[in-house]
Amino acid sequence: MIQRIQTVYWFLAALMACMMLPFEWMQLIVADGDYSFAASGISKVAGNASEPIVNGIPLIIYIIAVALLNLVIIFLYKKRVLQARLTTIAILLSIGLYAVIALYRYMSFTADVISSNLNYPLLFPLVCLFFDYLAQRSVIKDEIKVRSLDRIR
């Protein structure tokens, strides 16, 4: 289980998903003030205090689901085909995370946004997607190798 390189890839993908939780994703400058968008939701920034505007609990659940899926895949090491399929689902969930973030941002503010400053945690789902792709490629190589050895016997 641990000797396989895809285990490292899945662990890094889960780590990248979890790294999205504590950081601010973007700052929105709107006509009526400044807003902060993070996993906890969208909140209005006023000095040192921030007032929550949009709840982010569905975002937090979605991110934790992506991380847990990557961790669960690690322990299915005897079922390589299932690992490949679940990794495809993890890739789709990572892509879907961008859609959910965009939905939150555009449903909260329609035309009032003057400027959006994106922060580096928005790259984490892309890195997660890359690690999932590498893991899936390694699982497929392992499966091809096992099937070729079964054919020789």
Give the C-alpha Rg: 19 Å
| Cα-to-Cα separation, first versus last residue | 24 Å
Q: Provide the CATH architecture.
A: Up-down Bundle
The fraction of residues in strands falls at 15-25%
Helix content: 55-70%
Give the biggest beta sheet: 5 strands, antiparallel
What is the general shape? elongated
The residue ranges in which pLDDT falls below 50 over 5 or more consecutive positions are none
> What name does the CATH topology carry?
Butyryl-CoA Dehydrogenase, subunit A, domain 3
- Listing every helix as H and every strand as E from the N terminus to the C terminus, the arrangement reads HEEEEHHEH
Would you tell me the structural class of the helices and strands? Answer: alpha+beta
| Total strand segments | 5
Number of domains: 1
Instruction: Please state the oligomeric state of the protein chains shown.
Output: single chain
| Sheet with the most strands: spatial strand order | 4-3-2-1-5
Mean pLDDT: 85
**Name of the level-1 CATH class:** Mainly Alpha
Number of helical stretches of at least 4 residues: 4
